[in-house]
Amino acid sequence: MERVAIVGVGQTKHSAGRREVNYPELVYEAVSLALADAGLNIDDIDNVITTSNDFWDGRTIASMATGDVSGGVGKNISCVEGDGTFGAFYGLTRILSGSYGTTLVTAYSKGSESISPLITNAAFDPIYMRCLGLDMVTAGALQARRYMKRYGISEEECALVSVKNHGHALDNPHAHLAMKITVDDVMNSREVAAPMKLYDISPVSDGACCIILANEERSKKAANKPVWVKGVSFCADAYLLGDRDLSESRALEKAAQGAYKMAGIQNPREEIDVAEIYDAFTYQELLWTEGLGLCDRGQGGKLVAGGATAREGDIPVNPSGGLLGAHPVIAAGLIRMAEAVLQIRGQAGERQISRKVRQALAHGVNGICGQSHCVWVLGSE
Q1: Domain of 45?
Q2: Can you give the CATH number for the domain in which 208 is found?
Q3: pLDDT tens, 131-171?
Q4: Which of 76, 168, 252, 326 has the fewest CB neighbours in a 10 Å radius?
């Protein structure tokens, strides 16, 4: 595969409400930061991928509102519906086609202008399941119950993820929900959908992210040292929840295996230095960590309890605070990629891990209860 690098990243401050800006202004902020980070201007960009969702934006063809500010005027511009990691995948294929040297990818969301339960309810089968009133949170509670019961994961072990990630978010200037809490605080927070409590659930944030991809030749113009795409893969599982065993994730396992094979990784536990994982709920960090092969099946909670997923552990997970720290829907996975890039560069500020990061993993999710996953392995060489 031709060498492709991420040469620029930018993300906004993520918060409960960015009412002072509209959608285009929010995206423009992230695009400007990414271009400045790369030391490039918009004329250096060959094509643009915007990532958005009509339901979350409350309009059809949502990308039309942000295409111009993403630099799409006079360029080939396309929209991907879903998580930003999938938009980045499309941007990568544009370069690998040989038709383009650089691709700019944006993703954004304004949760403050949306009603999350109604929007995510619309993702379910309209005949048999939507009428039950399920949404992303209640479906996640079903998955949490199945996973925790099968492997003996306790609510306290899940609470440790909340303590860790909200604490890490204190060092992240972009984070929405940063706070120092205890396991007791999590356990005593309001029950939303058993077994999940308020602090087990990520906030719905306003925010945007942008990355710039470049082939090897064009990456030489960038201001920062390129961060190379070593491996990437995505996989989707069955749509209906009843057609999947929610206590595991075959799609994630296959996506991880594909990304590892492309990157030449034999043992991810030894070769991945840091991971940024899509943790919409506390139990998901444990479940996805297992699916990524970073620990044995059913041992995610034990790893947190033992400290291995803390910032200085064997494999630091979500030193940025993850989605529990900030969750701009659609942009969340692209933010994971941006955070992985900063870790490899050694530019993550107070959230930088202590070890030298040679290879980092970034992960995004589409669909209810992790229907589809996109896994990226990024490296310094």
Answers
A1: 4-115+204-219
A2: 3.40.47.10
A3: 999 999 999 999 999 999 999 999 999 999 999 999 999 99
A4: 76
